[in-house]
Amino acid sequence: MPSVSPEPHPFRFCPVDGTPLESPDDEGGTRCDTCGRSWYRNSSPVVGCVIVRDGKALVTVRGIEPHEGKLDAPGGFLLNGEDPVEGLKREIREELGIEIDAGIGDCVQMVPHPYAHDDDFNLALGFRARWVSGDPKPADDVAGVRWVSAEELDALDFAWEHDRELVRKALEDG
């Protein structure tokens, strides 16, 4: 698992009013003297899921950078204030054109990981989901879809190792 970057790029200017900010404190936060708000460099939440059907798991081929062409679990970034389960359902509709069923009890993985750069962290929430309707078709930032078996996992080129482990767990739990 990656470690937290010792020197993340902190906010240099207040996102509200543009005031130059002081160096961050020991927790990575800094306060704006003009508006009084505190700013921290936090992980961005992302959601992804694995759907298992006939002993195989649905994975996607990334159509964009970072890691274009590699496999990952379908999903994406949550909108500001969005419920994780509703965000997961929205992302799957956008990326694959299908409807899924999932709930908070289906969250089986929570992993901080670097996204595009070593100091750009996400918090990946991985779910097991159930297919409800529709035929998976690549859309949005997906270049392709694949159904993969447990026997194939170690040889596949995943963008992030935690996605391989999410698929493995979903296939084991069936």
Give the total of domains: 2
CATH architecture classification name of the largest domain: Alpha-Beta Complex
What structural class do helix, strand and pairing data support? alpha+beta
Percentage of residues in DSSP E strands: 25-35%
Note the quaternary state here: single chain
Global morphology: elongated
Count the strands?
Answer: 10
The largest sheet is: 8 strands, mixed
Query: Helical amount among residues, as a percent range?
Result: 10-25%
- Helices and strands, in order, run as EEEEEEHEEEEH
> What's the level 1 CATH class of the largest domain?
Alpha Beta
Which residues sit in consecutive blocks of at least 5 with pLDDT less than 50?
Answer: 1-7
CATH-defined topology of the largest domain = Nucleoside Triphosphate Pyrophosphohydrolase
Number of helices: 2
Distance between the termini: 25 Å
What value does the Rg take, in angstroms?
18 Å
Comma- or semicolon-separated keywords:
about 170 residues, Nucleoside Triphosphate Pyrophosphohydrolase, two-stranded antiparallel ribbon, 8-stranded mixed β-sheet, 2 helices, alpha+beta, disordered N terminus
